[in-house]
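Researcher: For the record, we're logging two predictions in this thread. I'll number them. Prediction 1 follows.
Model: Prediction 1, sequence and structure:
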Amino acid sequence: MRALLMSCVLVVVLMPVVSSQSATDPSWRPKASPPPSLVPPGAPAPGSAESAAIAEVLAFEKATEAAVVRGDVAHLERALAPTFLFTHGDGWADGGPPLKVDTKATWIEWVKRQPAPYIYRELDHVQVELHGDVAITLGRYFYLPQSANGPGNHMHVWFERLYAKRNGQWQQLSHRTVKGPLRNDAVKTSSTQ
């Protein structure tokens, strides 16, 4: 009985310590997972040509996220359309203002800051809706922001992004946060979080 009681006390005492470590530990990463389908509900099943285009868009999106983390301005200059807009925060979704709206120029200026603004940005549950040479991606990314004071809290946002294929290359036209940013205090990889 005494051993059982001691075990319960240890669990209660150590649980907050373990969970708080992952909230700020820069080496911790959430477990990202693929969506149940590469296309959103209601979209027709892709044929072979559409599947190839979906793979291109997903690879392009992943490369662009990696470029943001690296501060790779040359990649972003090519990847972002001249009219690119990045709408941060979901305040707009219920009639309020977004947290911030970046243009191509202001987003690139933010990305090239030092220290780098992000320790990681990991895509999760991304689906692609194709319309010829236009693609809409829906999904989530996990991220860990960094400041002069060190890493912040692990976060995530749900997003909708718009891409167009121009001269044989994909370009990002827009990012709009549809839910978030949200802290990853209890990260789940299901689409219900």
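Researcher: Logged. Prediction 2.
Model: Prediction 2, sequence and structure:
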Amino acid sequence: MLQTRAIATFLILFSCFFGEGAVAQNCYSTSILSPAPFLGNNGEIFRTTDGKIWEVKFAYEYLYEYYPQVYICNESKLMVSGKSIDIVLVGSTNTRQQDPARRADFPVKIILKPRGCRDYFLADGDSGGVYLLEWYGGYDPDVGDAIVGDLRSYGFKDVIYPANGSTGRVYVDDYMLSRSRAVEKLREKCR
């Protein structure tokens, strides 16, 4: 019985620390250069700042977005304006590598989400300190979930949860905090 519990605990911890990260490491940030506006409809061809040419598949979003910042995950999902859209790579206009400073390779993981604390939670994991985030819609994450998004600035952010392909919206209340300072600020929010 004890051995079974130990194995189960190991498997849970292993999947929490390594399982989701492997999926998220294939996500990066870029922007759509053309067309403008980008609609996000089936068959639409678009070009990103990293020189790649993509086609939208099986979606009719009518977004009317002008040069939006987007996230592309696993070369098959586009996250834009809180929507997750299926895409396929159809070509490339150059061989330039994605700017490493704009990559979203390192997801942050939710480390604390206290009950009764409105919608605040803490996330950590990309060497940017601890993030104090507030959930504002879409997928409602839980402890252990990975988040990919532009979280290194204040304000509302569209994010993706790569483990299940869901999208959501969070407010970055603070970031680059030490763990102790993050917990202290979370306590203040939970009063």
